[in-house]
Amino acid sequence: MKKPFLxxxxxREIVKTYPTPFHIYDERGIRENARALHAAFAWNPGFxxxxxxxxTPTPGILKLLREEGCGVDCSSLTELLMSERCGFSGxxxxxxxxxxxxxxxxxxxxxxxxxxxxxxTHVDFLHKTLGRAPETVCCRFNPGxxxxxxxxxxxxxxxxxxxxxxxxxxxxxxxxxxxxxxELGTKRFGIHAFLASNTISNEYYPALARLLFExxxxxxxxxxxxxxxxxxxxxxxxxxxxDQSANDIAVIGEGVRRAxxxxxxxxxxxxxxxxxxxxxxxxxxxxxxxxxxxxxxHIYKEYVGVDACAANLMRPAIYGAYHHITxxxxxxxxxxxxxxxxxxxxxxxDKFAIDRALPEIRPGDLLVIHDTGAHGFSMGYNYxxxxxxxxxxxxxDGSVKLMRRAETPDDYFAxxxx
Length: 418
Ligand SMILES: *Cc1c(COP(=O)(O)O)cnc(C)c1O
Hints:
Blueprint: H1 8-17, E1 22-26, H2 27-40, E2 48-52, H3 59-67, E3 71-74, H4 77-85, E4 93-96, H5 102-110, E5 114-117, H6 121-130, E6 136-140, E7 147-148, E8 159-160, H7 171-184, E9 188-192, H8 204-223, E10 226-231, H9 249-264, E11 273-276, H10 280-283, E12 287-298, E13 302-306, H11 315-319, E14 325-327, E15 337-342, E16 351-358, E17 366-369, E18 390-394, E19 400-404, H12 409-413
Parallel strand pairs: 1-18, 2-3, 2-11, 3-4, 4-5, 5-6, 6-9, 9-10, 10-11, 13-15
Antiparallel strand pairs: 1-12, 7-8, 12-13, 12-17, 14-17, 15-16, 18-19
Helix pairs in contact: 2-9, 5-6, 6-7, 7-8, 8-9
The structure holds pyridoxal-5'-phosphate.
Pyridoxal-5'-phosphate binds at residues 52, 54-55, 73, 96, 194, 197, 233-235, 277-281, 374.
């Protein structure tokens, strides 16, 4: 059973000040989860989580995570600028981008960020752009082929195709990049890989860690480079569906620790730091999209029209992603109606739920769309002249803080030349 983190009474109070639709985030949940992650990796003294800014690029969230000891993983100029304004600097910033423009490397270097290179050709591009090689550089590895984990106990098969992905360097290129960087003056090296997305399995990070640890030990031997950290990147998932069980971050941390003891310690690399760049795991379950049912329509199917649309949350429209829906105040009412819950875009893909069993919904009902804290607001857009919504923080004490106001038509018109 998925439970919203706010009640109908709380929601009714909030909508008096902030009309729906809006995204709201649960401060207590975010902090507790960040602490659980840090506890799971406490065995590694250099551990650091670099929150993937693209998941939730909101200063109120970034500052909160900084208080919990997290850094940021940026992938663009504006994400770097936002992170700088939130107080992140130097080794608190990872810059993992691809097809990177020169000006972005320049800003990343100016901020002292750790640059994660996506390709062998970027080594000399970076050197030419900066006029030097940074002291610390990370390189992104793509092992190619197909990445699979055995069937997990939840029956969820992890399979991804790194061989089809545009990211990272091949194994021979990785060693070449390290050797070239060392020639240019780099002293500390890291290895990064991102092989599977939204994994619902405690085995993903440990399997990835084994692969990266073995690679690191080999590359260190081949090139003599000092490998200072391994970056496990993102990919630890969340259970969007109510019948899926959540990953156990303590079990995941322990699995990575075992791989570390098995591979890195015997290789004389027992001081390597572990980094993560989690986005979804850090935020998704702690965000709700709150929306009001506006219309009901009875044609060949039963429709409930809501005031949010795919411009507020595009995952269902573009990936067919499941997002659970709770009708506030009807948590215990039987789900004896079947609806398509739809937004108002002139696109038939604008459906938050298709053939979903729900309690009877009446216009005016408040609906929680679950697990929208990551890759939710951030993927929003302005199609059909839809305006971006507000983002609110539900604080530990029950009060509500505005983190981003809703757009107005003037914001939408601001870049136009009439
Ligand atoms: C998207 C991304 C992440 C975060 O991924 P999640 O699946 O949200 O954890 C981390 N690192 C890089 C380089 C990314 O592109």
